């Protein structure tokens, strides 16, 4: 019996790899260069550690993105992304969308694999986070909720400039009509679509809230830069504030990604993201502690950290209480409730202590 042919594997487009390094690569080089030419031992260590962390985070993201791949075989198509896997036989593919930036395969039945619910909920979360400006259109989001969309926008470069188009024509000849119009701005849907869309909804325009949020971010960056240029001491303060915000935001995003990985049972990936989030959190804490020392408020800073820690732990205990009672586990719910009350008391006491003059 003849051996089965190896699947044809496609990784994300080269341009997407370039965009991974463009934001963080130059920053890492600046930090490493400043550390190499600095003559102050403390500043040299800070610059070198910061550059190494930037470089490490970029390499970690590169490895995670490299994991994403599209596999084509005689049995069907499989999309492997970090946190989920979508697969479908060729007979279930009913349509192909080639709108730039929104490329995807539509199936007549829910796709197989794992992480479909996570992908749909993550798309909703990103849309809410960016005030409606999500990665998918409303029509695509509806298909994601039905588990009938395989997004391939990360591999669209191979459709227009590589061999992915000919491979799709080979494995799915019923999609050749759509592929023949791949250069058109709005390709016609395939006749094999069981539920053809009546009209393709255009990407929604930015709302007033989105523009206001964008302007507030620009205003905050401009204010920080204006504050930094007023004096040398203000420049140091602005530099340290930037050193707090950047790792803190990355740590938060890594933590959210780790939670999603644990929810679908991807323990190895989740553990890796947790470790990266812890390192970034420690970096942000060290930068905040250094800023507090510079301002002469190290004791107040530690009290503030203790208050926030108690408050976060109390929030987690309250969430555990709600879940325990929903599952009718009264004993566990009472335990979580007592812990939440104790942690709230500690947070209140620590907060009052923070307000006392010393």
Could you please describe the fold and organization of this structure?
There is one protein chain. This protein has 358 residues and is α+β, with helices and mostly antiparallel strands. Among the domains are: 68-180, no CATH class; 233-296; 297-358. The protein is 64% helix and 9% strand. It is built from twelve helices and eight strands. It has helices at residues 14-37, 41-67, 116-129, 138-145, 156-161, 164-171, 176-180, 208-228, 232-263, 267-295, 298-326, 330-355; strands at residues 8-11, 69-72, 77-81, 84-88, 93-97, 104-107, 112-114, 149-151. The strands form two sheets. Strands 1-2-3-4-7 form a five-stranded antiparallel β-sheet. It has a three-stranded antiparallel β-sheet with strand order 5-6-8. Helix 9 (232-263) runs antiparallel to helix 10 (267-295) and helix 11 (298-326) packs antiparallel against helix 12. The protein starts with 7 loop residues before the first strand and ends with a helix. The model is unreliable at 184-201 (pLDDT under 50).
Tell me the distance between the termini.
Answer: 84 Å
The value of Rg in angstroms is: 25 Å
* Uncertain parts: 184-201
- Order of strands, main sheet, comes to 1-2-3-4-7
Oligomer: single chain
Q: How much helix, percentage-wise, in residues?
A: 55-70%
- What is the count of DSSP helices, taking H or I runs of 4+ residues? 12
Coarse shape: globular
Specify the structural class.
alpha+beta
Mean pLDDT across the residues is 76
* Approximate strand percentage: 5-15%
Spell out the helices and strands N to C: EHHEEEEEEHHEHHHHHHHH
What's the number of extended β-strand segments?
8
Main sheet overview: 5 strands, antiparallel
């Amino acid at each position: 019996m003849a051996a089965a042919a190896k699947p044809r594997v496609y990784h994300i487009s080269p341009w997407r790899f370039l965009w991974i390094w463009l934001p963080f690569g130059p920053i890492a080089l600046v930090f490493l260069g400043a550390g190499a030419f600095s003559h102050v031992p403390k500043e040299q260590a800070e610059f070198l550690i910061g550059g190494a962390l930037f470089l490490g985070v970029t390499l970690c993201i590169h490895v995670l993105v490299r994991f994403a791949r599209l596999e084509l075989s005689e049995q069907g198509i499989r999309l492997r992304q970090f946190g989920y896997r979508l697969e479908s036989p060729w007979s279930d593919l009913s349509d192909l969308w080639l709108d730039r930036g929104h490329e995807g395969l539509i199936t007549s039945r829910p796709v197989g694999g794992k992480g479909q619910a996570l992908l749909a909920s993550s798309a909703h979360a990103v849309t809410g986070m960016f005030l409606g400006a999500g990665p998918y259109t409303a029509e695509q989001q509806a298909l994601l909720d039905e588990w009938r969309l395989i997004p391939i926008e990360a591999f669209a470069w191979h459709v227009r400039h590589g061999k992915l188009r000919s491979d799709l024509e080979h494995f799915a000849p019923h999609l050749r009509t759509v592929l023949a119009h791949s250069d058109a701005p709005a390709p016609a849907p395939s006749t094999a679509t069981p539920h053809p869309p009546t009209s393709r909804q255009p990407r929604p325009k930015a709302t007033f809230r989105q523009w206001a949020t964008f302007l507030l971010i620009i205003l905050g960056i401009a204010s920080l830069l204006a504050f930094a240029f007023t004096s040398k001491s203000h420049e140091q303060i602005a530099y340290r504030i930037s050193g707090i915000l950047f790792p803190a935001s990355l740590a938060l995003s890594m933590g959210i990604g780790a939670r999603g990985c644990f929810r679908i049972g991807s323990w190895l990936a989740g553990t890796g993201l947790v470790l990266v989030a812890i390192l970034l959190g420690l970096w942000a804490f060290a930068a905040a502690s250094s800023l507090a020392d510079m301002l002469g408020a190290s004791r107040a800073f530690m009290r503030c950290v203790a208050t926030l820690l108690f408050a976060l732990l109390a929030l987690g205990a309250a969430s555990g209480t709600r879940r325990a009672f929903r599952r009718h586990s009264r004993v566990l719910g009472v335990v979580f409730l007592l812990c939440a009350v104790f942690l709230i008391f500690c947070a209140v006491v620590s907060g009052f202590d923070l307000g006392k003059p010393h």
